[in-house]
Amino acid sequence: MAQPPQKSFTSLADIVMAQLGTLGKSKFAGISSIQKSWPNIAGSLLSEQTKGLMLKNDVLTVKLSSSVWVQESLFFKATLQEKIKTELNITLKDIKFTV
User: Fold this and answer.
1) How far apart are CA 62 and CA 99, in angstroms?
2) What are the residues whose beta carbons fall under 8 Å from the beta carbon of 96, sequence distance 6 or more?
3) What is the pLDDT of residue 90?
4) Is 21 a residue whose pLDDT tops 70?
5) % of the chain at pLDDT higher than 90
6) What is the 3-state secondary structure (H, E, C) of the chain?
7) Residue 4 in domain
8) C-alpha to C-alpha distance for 25 and 58, rounded to whole angstroms
9) Domain housing 54
10) 43 in a domain, yes or no?
11) Is residue 20 part of a domain?
């Protein structure tokens, strides 16, 4: 008796990458790069206070642990933008800080 044909499976990684291609892989790569490099870019103190990062329309939103850290981070905004541009080759329109 003949064996039924074997079904081939597609890996989850291949499916996700295909979907990212349709959604704009470069945008996903941008936030992924920033998240991975954030401790080096922001320094250990600020990165420990960071609760989340979001990138939309070339504006990075940084969620911080308190309003005190939001105020403090405003002093480093230009430096953070420059480091992201230099180290990751990502040009941001702005960085916003929120609680």
Assistant:
1) 8
2) 59, 60, 61, 62
3) 93
4) no
5) 67
6) CCCCCCCCCCCHHHHHHHHHHHHCHHHHHHHHHHHHHHHHHHHHHHHHHEEEEEEECCEEEEEECCHHHHHHHHCCHHHHHHHHHHHHCCCCCEEEEEC
7) no
8) 14
9) 26-98
10) yes
11) no
**60 within a domain of the structure (yes/no):** yes
Share of the chain above pLDDT 70, in %: 84
Structural domain count of the chain: 1
Lookup: tokens for 25 = 């892989």
**What residues contact residue 43 under an 8 Å CB cut-off, 6+ apart?**
none
Name the band, by pLDDT with cuts 50, 70 and 90, for residue 15.
confident
The string of pLDDT tens digits covering residues 46-89 is 999 999 999 999 999 999 999 999 999 999 999 999 999 999 99
Backbone angles phi, psi at 39, to 5 degrees: -60, -35
Domain of 45: which CATH number?
3.30.300.180
